[in-house]
Amino acid sequence: MVDLGLTNTGRIENVQTENSVPNEGYISFDIRFSIHYKKKTIKIIINIEAQKSTDPVKLGYHLENRIIFYLSRLISSQKQREFFHSEYDKIKKVYSIWICMDASNDEDSVNKISLKEETLFGKPSAFSQLDKMCGIVIWIREQNDVEESKNQLIAMLEDLLKDEAIEKKKKNLEKKYNMKMTLDLERRIDDMCNLSDVVEERGIEKGTEKERTRVIQKMIEKGYTKEDILDLDYTEDEYKKAKDAVGIDV
């Protein structure tokens, strides 16, 4: 959660979360934005994804392959937007950050996926531009009653996504992380706690049929595709029922 007034990184601008490239298909990012660092003209494109499960059996694919695809799309979609023709040196750095919520009690971690040079023969080459794409995977634990993570970012995310009252979360964030609760920040924390589809899905995974339908309706209203929703372990019948409830043809 990054906002002007809460960070000194520089100017932040929203970027459309849908991405469609001719002949390459359509994908939808959870959150996508750009940062202009301080007074420099460096522009960084970032997208953030929340992932309830990383199990290849449930997903039908390995998560790292999806991360690579997202990074590649963030790069390729810059052509005719950030650079034209053969101006490849104008490609902006891209980051894809994944918050994965199914780590075991001792598996809280932060991992980096990036390009690197490896010399197979002869003198190493000084490739200075291999920092254009980077994937970050943040693993937070499923259980609430675990020892606090030694990593402050993970500890904060686990506190934010913990299954407890919002007001208690706010007090905890203010006390532990010196987050001054301005009206705007409180509103954004409320949004994170109440409207995050992944968090809700995690919290009511064993909930009632009515609750599951309500979550699907929210995802439909936010533009999630049928495939996105079924990837979260909802059924075809649940999807159809939610579609019928909001009056949209399947």
Describe the protein's architecture and organization.
By secondary structure, the chain is α/β, with parallel strands linked by helices. The protein has 2 domains: about 130 residues, no CATH class; about 45 residues, no CATH class. The protein contains 9 helices and 8 strands. It has a 6-stranded mixed sheet, with helices on both faces. Strands 2-3 form a two-stranded antiparallel ribbon. The longest helix has 14 residues. It is globular, with a radius of gyration of 20 Å. The two termini are about 35 Å apart. The N terminus is likely disordered.
N→C terminal distance: 33 Å
* Record field, number of beta strands: 8
Shape annotation: globular
Structural class: alpha/beta
Helix coverage percent of residues? 25-40%
Weakly predicted, low-confidence segments:
1-12, 16-28, 202-207
Mean pLDDT: 77
Total discrete domains = 2
Percent of residues in β-strands = 15-25%
Which strand order do you get reading across the main beta sheet? 1-4-5-6-8-7
